[in-house]
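Standup, Tuesday
Yesterday: got the pipeline producing structure tokens again.
Today: sanity-check two examples.
Blockers: none.

Example 1:
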Amino acid sequence: MSHPHPFFRVLRVALLLAAAVAPARADQLCHTVTVPSTTGNYNVEVPIPQFDTAFGTLTLVTVTIEVTVIATAQVENLGNLPETFMLVRGGEGTVLAVDGVPFVSTSPTQTTTHTLAAFDGTLDFGGTSGLTLPPLTLVSGAVVGSRNDSGVLALYSGPPGNPGPSGTRTRAVGLSVANSAGNLLTNFTVETAFTTVTLCYDYTPRVASLCAGDGTAAACPCANPGGVGEGCANSFGFGALLSATGGAAVSADSLTLSASVPGTTTTMFLQSTQVQGAGQGIAFGDGLRCVNGTILRLGSGGAAGGMAQYPRAGDPPISVRGVVPSGATRYYQAWYRNAAAFCTPASFNLSNALQVDWGT
């Protein structure tokens, strides 16, 4: 019969990731945390925030873990006969959602067979009846788990601008055991379980690009397409790219529009309720006019170092300046000066457009 030693110590765990919050691509946000090393059975909440719904609609939660276990084992045969047994050394690392359902679990273990002589009279985990093994390092490799059920998506979708903690937990335990019908005394130690955890949110973003002058929408006025996603090319040989950062929720508006334009040229940001030409745009100046319907000038001014943006310091948020109701869809485009004799007699050009589906 196997008797676990009362001084059964399991693990020293750290959760390590590379950065605090970093978008891996336009529709994914990944979070990282570091949990101090802890001795003993490990089951603790980690400070990973919920998904900020100002950025879009959550569609998938993915967790990737890699577990390294360093395990030692001591065994003493207390019986009067030799004993052959199977020894399992290892541990298990698990990440659990707030509802207690595991995202992913991995159990790096190793099984070996040993034979010990009858008890030699000295309980020292040595001699002929005892065994002390050096530390064994086991690595799980990267293991991935994901969930997209409505329950977990709701649990991980937080209020816009202040999503709060998600309640995600990590757990690690030792799995070492000596399988024998004999009288064995065991002492197992899992000194270190180093667990690397990456939690990523896949989502449908609130911001989408459209009406580019790169040949994917209407033709540019003078066969002057810009680069991928940009507006029609200007006299400097590139098109203005309109992009957005931040969250598009009326209650927590941190959205910023940025346009890459020549030098310090005057740039105006426009908001509209509709798009022109079913989102394809029509020729206008040296570029394409994408906005239509009710058009509002958000603001204008000179660019700095080839970049113009709205809002600037002192400007109201976009949703305030644009009087955007919760749940509305609005379209945005940048108009800028380009007075060089280049394409049409006009002295201006435009960027691509953005569609923003505003949240509450």
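Example 2:
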Amino acid sequence: MSNRRLSGSAVALVTPFRRDGSVDSDSLRRLVQFHRKAGTDIIIPCGTTGESPTLSTAEQSEIIRLVRDEAGSSMMVAAGAGTNATDHAVELARNAEAAGAEAILSVAPYYNKPSQAGFYQHYRHIAQAVSIPVIIYNVPGRTGSNVSADTIIRLASDFENILAVKEASDNMDQIMELLDRRPERFSVLTGEDMLILPFMALGGDGVISVAANQIPAAVRQLVDAMRAGNLDEARRINRTYRRLFKLNFIESNPVPVKYSLAEMGMIEEVYRLPLVPMAEENKSILRTELKNLGLI
């Protein structure tokens, strides 16, 4: 199992598609190179921002292998490998490990709304099925239910390869409880770009970021400024990009960020249904901000 701590600036990577709907491997390689140059710490393909619900198992493995190959030793490759059926989540986790992932990000079961005992058993089966680190992904806004701090701490204490949580709620009470009670080896990462500054001020370990797709160097600089206790610099960076952080959710993620990357000339603007292009008025708002920031 990797000894590298799950911390710093991690990108929830988009999946570029061609007009025929297939995975655009050439653009994917360029995106990985973009992150290598920017100093991204962890790259995470096949998550929510990578349109994971629309990827086949074969595509998941293909994407992870390509990202692993292109990343080299410069970045940790953690891969999205979660779903709401435990047996399938175990299968995805094993496939990700076999494809070269150094950790997996496993979303809490959605729609079926398990009890806390059910969440525990779900992650127990995943942790026991793989030898690589497991990152719990708690995102109540998408799943419809919350993995409690008690359950997360219990899992972290019981399984040595459950090494982090992506806490993508804005529940500051739960975040502080996790930070206060976690085992020393366990990392707590925010999933909200808007919260990087206050989250890390409380002792958080970093971010799994959507905005890092567009501005990886700036997100890394914000994280580094907070690690160094340089609040003035962190506030400056946060102030510069706060509107972009917000506009990335003007419609459902990853539609705005993929539109941005298409405007930046990095991918084609192609989504898989049920996701569709943004409304023209929202495109105009986001395009203006991208111009203001000098990204296009």
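Quick observation on example 2: Residues 8-230 form a domain with the TIM Barrel fold (CATH 3.20.20.70). The chain is about 45% helix and 10% strand.
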